[in-house]
Amino acid sequence: MTERQKPILISIVGPTAVGKTALAISVAKKYSTEIISSDSRQFYKELEIGTAKPTKKDLKTVNHHLIDNLSIHDYYSVGRFEQQAIEILKNSYREKNVMVMVGGSGLYCQAIWQGIDEMPAIDVSIREDLNRVYEKKGIAPLQRELKSLDPEYYDVVDQQNHARLIRALEVIRSTGQTFSSFRKGSESVERPFEMVNIGLEMDILKLYDRINSRMDRMIERGLFDEANQFYDFRNLNALRTVGYQEIYGFIDGSYDKEEAIRLLKRNSRRYAKRQMTWFKKDATINWFSVGDPIHGFEKVLEFLEKKLG
């Protein structure tokens, strides 16, 4: 690689099951470097099957950061992720010119690309009221309120994550402004590295088929048993995500296993759609179709070769 003033961060994003992990490993091997995960579900060491972590072989092949670094009982925020990831990059760039970041959690990627927006002070009583609503009536009222008051954020947020919904609604109720309006002010943040953002996309029907097939494999590996193991902690943020909440509905007797599997697949497809909605709004992302993953990856590697020198 030619000498540059700034080191480089290659970010690989896109919907679930599109092939981000495989590409990230290929890129990291090509540039003899390491990977930072920006997948908000892969932080938790207790959760293995439902989070689609890289395999043990993958983790041995390339060193990964911020995977299995938390317990489901730990409090974690996007701001904390930003601090940790930037510190890892700073230390790594002492020896490396290139680092790779991969994940489908848009808010975490944005934290590294643009920084975290400053949010207004919140009346604690509003937060407590929203938490009472959730405890007594469940997540549906929060979803309806956010969809009505801030449809822009509702379209991209993880709609099954009650903490994210409450965070947005407490800002809206406190300020009378949309949560989205507070998330656009940090685009001028300066980073001590150059960013090259890669997005992977795929024909939607083929992507949905891959999502369904991957869910079948997760179930075969024991996803239902994994979820059941943490049933007592089902209200923790780490477990209020697609891949676990659908199973808890089955365990609670709300529907049978066949319906749980249908919901697992449907909600995973919906999550993928929200991911694409989020990332497609970012003009800095260079998009590549991976209808044929191997050929698609070759195009990405050729692009990086030209871009990086």
Q: Identify the strand order in the major beta sheet.
A: 3-2-4-1-5-6
Structural class: alpha/beta
**Uncertain parts:** none
Count the helices. How many?
13
Calculate Rg over CA atoms. 20 Å
- Taking the alpha carbons of the first and last residues, their distance comes to 6 Å
The profile of the biggest β sheet is: 6 strands, parallel
- Percent range for helical residues? 40-55%
The share of residues in extended strands comes to: 5-15%
Please write the string of helix (H) and strand (E) elements.
EHEHEHEHHHHHEHHHHEH
Overall average residue pLDDT: 91
Number of strands: 6
Q: What shape does the CA trace take?
A: globular
Describe the structure.
This protein is an alpha/beta fold and about 300 residues long. The chain has helices at about 20-30, 55-60, 80-90, 105-115, 125-135, 140-150, 150-155, 160-175, 205-220, 225-230, 245-250, 255-280, 295-309; strands at about 10-15, 35, 65, 100, 195-200, 285-290. Strands 3-2-4-1-5-6 form a 6-stranded parallel β-sheet, with helices on both faces. Helix 5 (about 125-135) packs across helix 8, helix 6 packs across helix 8 and helix 9 crosses helix 12 (about 255-280).
How would you describe this structure in keywords?
309 residues; alpha/beta; six-stranded parallel sheet; 13 helices; 6 strands; 50% helix; 9% strand
